[in-house]
Amino acid sequence: TTADSIFYQSNDFVGYSHVQKLVPIIYKDKWTKNCLLFFMIVFKAKAKLMNFDYVNKFTRENALNLLIKLPVKNNIPDWEYMEKHIECLYLIEKDSISAIANHINNPLEKNISLKGWKRFHLYDNEMFDIDMGTKLDKIKMTSVNPTINFIGRANKSNGITECVDEISGLKPYEAGNLTLSLGGEYLGSCFIQPSPFYTSQNVVVLKPKWQMSFNVKMFIAIMVFKESQLYYKAFIDELNRHIKTDFSIYLPTKNDAPDWQYMEAYISYLFQQQSNTLQHLV
């Protein structure tokens, strides 16, 4: 369906419906694991440039017609180049993992006490107004002079799948609001939007009822995603019928109200932790 799930399989496997396999038909003895990994990386990168999604689906026909570039030597694929390139990547990753492992062995731990946490609906007082979004189809959008982010059911880049033209008469949502994917493969993906935006089908907009800080929004977005992944199921029991009724998340409390100060401090701590980790890796 999308280009995100293209992988090299090292073991025998059985695929469910809509899963296709690619196998070499020429130079079969040359396609080592590393060469196949190289091909997979290039093929996946090219496919992702085509902006396939649940509306504009990545099909078998698309895959068969996709042209990619590979290094060549004497007019055939340069197997040695591909082999050495992947080996080089392995060495880089090995060094990175070693550095991370050394840092993990000396962590800066912060214990979390769940005492006093309670459940809140997203529509509760001091939480959010839930807007059902613009419900636009990306395939019908234009990008002649793109200025507006288009938010789809994605789990990366803040859910931004495209930058599109502003539609006359349709005001985009303001930066700082949150978006939440109600269904699909990335059910529960929740992001703070950095710029004005439109949304696709099944993406709602969470508008804070007060001037929430970035850190508080981030804390809530994390809890929304975790709750969604734990208790809801894509294509079976999605958030559509729950988001304005019984969907709730755990939050720390103070005097029976959300403890905003705790959330602010905890996310600040996580940012500092990541900064320290990066300094160890550089």
UniProtKB/TrEMBL annotation:
Annotated GO biological process: DNA restriction-modification system
Pfam families associated with the record: Methylase_S (PF01420)
GO molecular function: DNA binding
Keywords: DNA-binding, Restriction system
Domain Type I restriction modification DNA specificity: from-to ranges: 117-276
Family: Belongs to the type-I restriction system S methylase family.
Protein name (database record): Type I restriction modification DNA specificity domain-containing protein
